Input
Amino acid sequence: MAHTNGKLPWGLFYFHRFWRLTPVYAAVILFFLFLDPYIGNGPLWYHYIDHPNCEKYWWRNLLYISNLFPKSEMCIDWSWYLPNDMQFFVISPFILILLHKVPKVGAGLLATLTAISIIIKASLTAKYGMGGGLVGGGGGAGAYWDKIYDKPWTRISPYFVGMAVGFIMVRRPHLRMRPIVVLCGWVLASAVGLVVIYVINNQFYREWSRAEQSMYNGLASFTWALCVGWVILACKNGYGGWINTFLSWNFWVPVGRLTYTVYLVHPIILRNILFSISNPYSGKIIPMTTTFTGGIVLSHMVAFVFALAIEFPFANLEKLLIPSNVEKKKSEKERNKEQA
Output
């Protein structure tokens, strides 16, 4: 936005996102529907292989509206975040343009919308008596999912935090902080992040009050996003130390390119492992570690095949059909050099 003076090629902006997400997404749905039933075997297998939701409602996934329907009607329900992400992406330019042209008004709107999302999530929790997270009352995990968990109006606050972090990075590309601020930032982000993850287990030992449930559900994802935002800002501006060194390790580059496809295929791999088991399964550390490690390795292997066969070729096809502005400028410079 800063490089284009607030101008946006709307058609290409939305097409790029759709093209980036959809080909391998559709391929995974097809694989899950037509090939997956023939891969495994076992006493539990035939309770797993029937996928009526994908036969009926696959089109909702490709239109990125599946999160607006009950979980009981979702095809590959673990992909619930993709429609959220697409819906957030659709509205994001309007806020970004406002942030670019009238920063104070844009920041105020961002803060207001974030607060509204938090209040809605907390209010729905109180109204339906939901437990913190997927644990607890109000009809259990299914009711929590349908009323709160995957709905865009309750999920968008972390997205807004990400937009705010990006805005700060553009406006303050070389942010300087005092050592005491850096120390307090890391301590606070670490402490709050750990609380968000582990405090939910307290519900197994005592029943939370309605206020505690509402506060946790309203603020958990938002505060987690703040913690991640701090890590990004600190590492980007040279305050990450060994954490930045670890996160910048070259090993993560090829792994990072597979994350989207791993996200799509890993539940299929794990379900195949679990539903193919023909003997009683022990929950002890060695069998669990073996299953966990095998799931990670197999997920990345299958994701590599999908990425190599579908995701990467479609990405390269887009580059051939629609060269980016950067590539256009490079080609223009090369032509100018040749003419000179």
Notes: The chain has a mean pLDDT of 89. The CA atoms of residues 2 and 170 lie 8 Å apart. DSSP finds 14 helices and no strands in the chain.
